[in-house]
Amino acid sequence: MGIEIEKKFLVNRLPNDLGPGTDICQGYIVNTPDKVVRVRIKGDAGFLTIKGRTVASVRQEFEYEIPVKDARQLLDRFCDSQIIEKCRHIHFHQGTKWVIDRFCGANQGLVMAEIELSSRDQPFAVPPWAEKDVTDDHRYCNACLAIHPYTTWQTGGKP
Question: At 12, phi and psi to the nearest 5?
């Protein structure tokens, strides 16, 4: 069984030495509080991911690489309009790997950073470009952003 333990932060400014990113398009075949089935195209690779409910920052996660052609068909046929577009950057801070996502489309303007941990009590340093911890704010979950995009929060679309 796969386990995901992550912390999410809003980004107040991009790091100066941020390298090139990878475009990601992802959609949701199943999107409920108890389970998510996601399909993703990341660069030139496709993935199918199944995630369980998050409890205390931990959840089950299973991810499988699939052909990009299959991923595109799943996005087109089964994800309705629950699509997330973003550019993902990898950045290292004090020896830890951070993922910085710059959202596009309906979530334009949102920039978040995530760190995956090996245990809930693993120590890590929060970078100076990361501000508010939004790990426990469900609005910032990608599955929620697919239904309630960031750009609609000021116009009544806030979950």
Answer: -90, -20
Q: Roughly how many angstroms between the first and final C-alpha of the chain, as a whole number?
A: 31
Split into its structural domains, the chain has a count of: 1
**Which range of residues forms the domain containing residue 35?**
3-155
Write a three-state SS string for 26-38.
EEEEEECCCEEEE
User: pLDDT per residue over 5-34, tens digit each?
Assistant: 899 999 999 998 888 899 999 999 999 989
How many other C-beta atoms can be found within 10 angstroms of the C-beta atom of residue 56?
8
Measured CA to CA, the distance from residue 18 to residue 100 in angstroms comes to 9
Catalytic residue ranges? 28
Which phi and psi (to 5°) does residue 4 adopt? -120, 125
Q: Which amino acid is at 88?
A: R
The helix or strand, by DSSP H or E, that contains position 145, with its residue range, turns out to be helix 142-147
CB 35 within 8 Å of CB 141: no
What is the CATH classification number for the domain harbouring 128?
2.40.320.10
Give the model confidence (pLDDT) of 59-114 as tens digits.
899 999 999 999 999 999 999 878 999 999 999 999 999 999 999 999 999 999 99
